[in-house]
Amino acid sequence: MNKRTENRLRLTVLGGFLGSGKTTWLRHQLHEKAFGRVHVIVNEAAEAPVDGVLLGAADQITLLAGVCACCDGQQQLETLLLGLCDDRSSISDPTVRLETIVLETSGLADPAEILSLIQNHPILVRQIVIAEIIVIVDALNAVEQIQNEVLSRKQIEAADRLILTKTDLSTEQDTACLGVTLRSIAPGAMQLAASFGSPLVLRPPAQDVQGVALVKLSDKESDPILASRLDLGAKADWTAFTVWLSALLYARGDQIVRIKGVVCTPAGRLLLQTVRKSVQSPEILPDLNCPLETDNTIAVIGRGFTQSQLAKSFAHFLA
Amino acid sequence: MCGSCGFPAAPGHWTEAGAATPHERLRERFRRVQVLQKVLDQSGVTAHDGGVIPGIQVMSLSGGQTIVPDLEALWAEVKKLSGQVFDPLDL
Questions:
Q1: Which of A51, A145, A242, B78 could serve as A152's disulfide partner, Cβ 3.0–4.6 Å?
Q2: DSSP E strands, A31-185
Q3: How far apart are CA A124 and CA A118, in angstroms?
């Protein structure tokens, strides 16, 4: 059988608003060697970088200062990533070559833009797979940032994993309220807490805790964000699914925040992820003898549609 | 670059990741156009893929015809030919 395994370099994007504690968190993870053989790229919008000095523990580190990797620094980031892929492909021994790149974005970066950069690049798309988008949330200031900054909301929407920092300085009530608010923006993201990088226990908020009512920051945000699930059935039809999803993204791309799921296909188990309109080239997951329960179920997070509407619409695409 | 369609060689579109062998790829292309014909039924646009040249051929009732490289480009072309965005949630 022609079953390929994933051989691409994994990229973890670390985002979060200005001053949320990205570098502090990353420094601890590097100290714990959480990422294996890693190359760290630190992007700072400021001309006078300090983060590079703070992250001395990394084996390999590159600083991208004075530009923002998601907008005016895209060119530099692209060159940097191409260089890393090049160096990696010159080493054939899988036990020593680079496994992961961690990109610490500037506080003003939109992680979705970095995803698009890689997806739209003919070489990088074959060399790099985005493993995870981690977004650091400052428990003291997040509510205010979410209310005032579109960017802060965009960062949270893009996250796979949200890490709340400074929860030890905030009251339990405020943290619970923030947790519920974050859930309303990113229903699919895992929520964790950390203090100076070491994990803290984050108690799930009580049933009666109310989140902050979100102020409308643009006209498109009229409906609340809902998380829906689409069941593709035991024998998932990848072709029908992609025809449907590509049409949905074309028509409703601005209302879809996030899509994530594993689909079993003849080419293997594919992990499909999108952040807004940008679709990541599917990652091939290790083949298991028995499919997991969560396989062939797609999480669709967005506004302006319901779960039953999605199921009904998808049924039209099946033979 | 392909001599018949002129599209430069590109990494596979994400929608084509479900097939690993040439055989599966061809079968998937036929299935894809079958699904397209079914859902585009009312839109005045037809899709065709004979499996010979790369890409999907899109035709309008008035004779307009284009070849698109992938599904993403297809929906943009459908909008151009039929004058409206094809919204799967309206079916």
A1: A145
A2: 38-44, 60-65, 100-104, 128-138, 161-165
A3: 6
Residue of B nearest to A308 (CA): B89
Answer whether B35 sits within 8 Å of A317, measured CB to CB. yes
Last residue of a domain, one of A217, A241, A272: A217
Average pLDDT estimate for A197-222: 77
Which candidate from A2, A267, A316 shows the least CB-CB separation from B39? A316
Would you say residue A220 has pLDDT above 80? no
> Are A193 and A273 part of one and the same domain?
no
* Among A265, A279, A314, beta carbon nearest to B18: A265
- Side by side, the strands of the sheet bearing A161-165 are A60-65, A38-44, A100-104, A9-16, A128-138, A161-165, A190-195, A198-200
ipTM for the whole predicted complex goes beyond 0.85: yes
Total of domains in chain A? 2
Residue A1: pLDDT band with limits 50, 70, 90 = very low
* Residue ranges making up the domain that contains A302: 221-315
Please write the tens of the pLDDT for every residue from A128-147: 988 899 999 999 889 888 88
Task: Name the minimum distance, in Å, from the CA of A193 to any CA of chain B.
Answer: 34
A138 and A188 within one domain: yes
Residue B37 has pLDDT above 90, yes or no: yes
**For the whole model, what pTM was predicted?**
0.78
By the CB < 8 Å criterion, does A277 face chain B?
Answer: no
Which of these three, A217, A236, A254, is where a domain ends? A217
The CATH number for A51's domain is 3.40.50.300
- Cβ atoms of A114 and A70 within 8 Å: the answer is yes
